[in-house]
Amino acid sequence: MKIGILGSGLMGGKLGTLWARCGHDVTFAYARSATKLERLARDANAASGSVAEAVRGADAILLAVHWSRIGDVLEQAGDLAGQVVLNCCVPLDESNTDLVVGTTTSGAEELARLRPDARWVSCFNTSPSESFAGVFARKDRAPRPHLLVYGDDAGAREVAHDLIRDIGFEPLEAGGLRAARFVEPFAMVTAELAYGQPGGPALTYRFEKLRN
Ligand SMILES: NC(=O)c1ccc[n+]([C@@H]2O[C@H](COP(=O)([O-])OP(=O)(O)OC[C@H]3O[C@@H](n4cnc5c(N)ncnc54)[C@H](OP(=O)(O)O)[C@@H]3O)[C@@H](O)[C@H]2O)c1
């Protein structure tokens, strides 16, 4: 799969590197330094380029920037018409303490409003980047940790499922894009569990339904 990474920081850098290790054709884009993008690409056996280059012909795009950068990155990305976009962004203020949208809308719904012809799917926003290497290393162990995935486009969700499984998670369907109103605040809970509570940041989770 050809994957464009928009935002090559903690999330984009790590997910893109692991997808490249799975054999995907990854292009890293959007960082403050071209040298950083080039180094990331070289280390991952991937490519780096502009946002427009990363988006062109991509089967999947990962949007992984701070909420304050959304306008800038979308402007460079164009209309994204017909393209599958995995969104892991949490709509946070500059100090990363408060959500700037909710509860009658959400970051995911605002993105869909800004680029209505893109095929949006939300995932990876409830897992700290520090968990990815360990999840990837334990891919063969069952049961896998869950990862919430939600959106209105079934085909886009299927693409996301494959990419989520590549990292080593089991995708857990959590509803349509509107679910973002509730999942984005939950992402703040996972961040507190990862960074605010003891035991280290490599948090994973798994939901179970008791059958009897
Ligand atoms: N980190 C997590 O564990 C986690 C978990 C769940 C959700 N999220 C969400 O995922 C999104 C990405 O988070 P992250 O932790 O990956 O962020 P990050 O490490 O700060 O990465 C953001 C990327 O955007 C780039 N960038 C920032 N300002 C820029 C500018 N002015 N011009 C060009 N590039 C610029 C950064 O460049 P540089 O590389 O040069 O800094 C970096 O590559 C956020 O919305 C966050 O809320 C993160």
UniProtKB/TrEMBL annotation:
Which SUPFAM superfamilies does the entry link to? NAD(P)-binding Rossmann-fold domains
Keyword field contains Coiled coil: no
Pyrroline-5-carboxylate reductase catalytic N-terminal domain boundaries: 2-89
Q: Which UniProt keywords apply?
A: Oxidoreductase
**What would be an example GO MF term here?**
oxidoreductase activity
Among InterPro entries, the record links this protein to: NAD(P)-bd_dom_sf, P5C_Rdtase_cat_N, STEAP_metalloreductase
| Origin superkingdom | Bacteria
User: What protein name is recorded for this chain?
Assistant: Pyrroline-5-carboxylate reductase catalytic N-terminal domain-containing protein
| Organism per entry | Lutimaribacter pacificus
Classification from the root reads: Bacteria, Pseudomonadati, Pseudomonadota, Alphaproteobacteria, Rhodobacterales
